[in-house]
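README, section 4: Worked example with a bound small molecule

Sections 1 through 3 covered apo chains. Here we extend the same pipeline to holo records, where the ligand is supplied as SMILES alongside the sequence. The molecule in this example is flavin-adenine dinucleotide. Nothing else about the input changes; the structure line simply encodes the ligand pose together with the chain.
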Amino acid sequence: MDLTDSPQLATFRQRVRSWLQAHQSDAPTEKTGLHIKDIEPFRAWQRQLAEAGLVGVTWPVEFGGQGLGMIEQAVINSELYRLGLPGALDLIGLGNLGPTIIVHGTAGQKERHLKPLLTGDEIWCQFFSEPSAGSDLAGIRTRAVKTDEGWLLNGQKVWTTNAQHAAFGLLLARTDPSLPKHQGLSMFIVDMKAPGVQVRPLRQLTGMAAFNEVFFDNVELPETAIVGEVNDGWAVALTCLMYERFNLLTMLDQIGWQPSVFVQPLRDKIKPQHVQPLASVLVDLLAVRYSGHRALSKVAHGELPGPEAGLGKITLVDAAIRGAQIIAEVDGPSALDGQWGQVLAEMQGLRSGGGTDEILLNTIGERVLGLPGEPRVDKGMPFSEVMS
Ligand SMILES: Cc1cc2nc3c(=O)[nH]c(=O)nc-3n(C[C@H](O)[C@H](O)[C@H](O)COP(=O)(O)OP(=O)(O)OC[C@H]3O[C@@H](n4cnc5c(N)ncnc54)[C@H](O)[C@@H]3O)c2cc1C
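The generated complex, written as structure tokens:
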């Protein structure tokens, strides 16, 4: 594990730091555009970051990226955090969906979509989860049926972050129910303005609505909407989920849950019974940081991050919730009105987002520890029989 910047990385960090210091007055004052109705200041900030080469840094140069690695993305994230600045508005589009189109998309899709995605002129959303398919993603039921002109889409997605702002979504649909569940799926680009697309906000415990349920009622998709091959959508989905895991790694160190975040508010008023639990939170946060460094260091030496990256998310979210609970206990009910109430309400959801604790632990059990796999009773069965 190498924790120091190479001379090349130190130069890159200095360049990023100087640019951010010079332009920080242009950034929106809120840290994230997720809960904001007026996203225009965040869109403008993403455009500025894109023009400075500070978003899509891992994208190939021919598609407007910098052709750099995850380490450079991690450096940018850490410098943004250091100055308390928000990052790009469309993290899902830049981090997962654009790279998936780069791998599986046609030349026409890349030409049409990548530039406006990079600059934030067109926001994207990810249509994977459904009411009866979250952890069991391959169990989705939204159907795309072949027509003479293209495809006819019917069904429902849920928990779709940013759908209320999105111009396009990447959507996994079932195209052949006679095949086993992982095989009859295809991936599509959906124009959010197409007739039959209806976005309904879902209000969360925080009082905000950052995600949505989205209904598709006889939505006509052109032939050119398909990403990858017909009935090979699972491979495209796996690419997307792999990028999601990579991106998490670039944020583990500086996602904002530094030990000081929890120590500072308790400094003068901590009670003896809270010392041990707080120490345990801090130890977990440090473990996440160093595991993140170790994984990034592996990547820098040409290896791929393994499924153990999921452990970082579980540990981080759990530690942040325990830290916020300690502060709420010390400060009493008034703590729940402000920042800490918000944290407690929001963080519970992150136990599910990006894979639930149980599913990530299952993956680690099976792929890292070599434990026996879960029984899969529907393996090889036509999906139409699973549904009936
Ligand atoms: C903040 C946030 C943003 C999100 N954004 C998006 C988005 O933009 N696009 C999108 O498509 N989705 C999004 N999601 C959805 C997310 O991917 C799902 O919540 C997640 O995959 C879990 O699915 P589910 O909610 O249907 O829960 P379920 O899969 O129904 O799980 C319910 C419970 O059962 C447990 N469980 C399920 N299967 C097993 C098993 N085999 N073994 C043990 N326990 C099991 C789970 O761990 C969980 O505790 C988002 C979620 C959140 C919280």
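What to look for in the output: Strands lie at 124-127, 143-146, 150-161, 168-174, 185-191, 197-202, 211-222, 226-227. Residues 7-119 form a domain with the Butyryl-Coa Dehydrogenase, subunit A; domain 1 fold (CATH 1.10.540.10).

Section 5 describes how to batch many such records.
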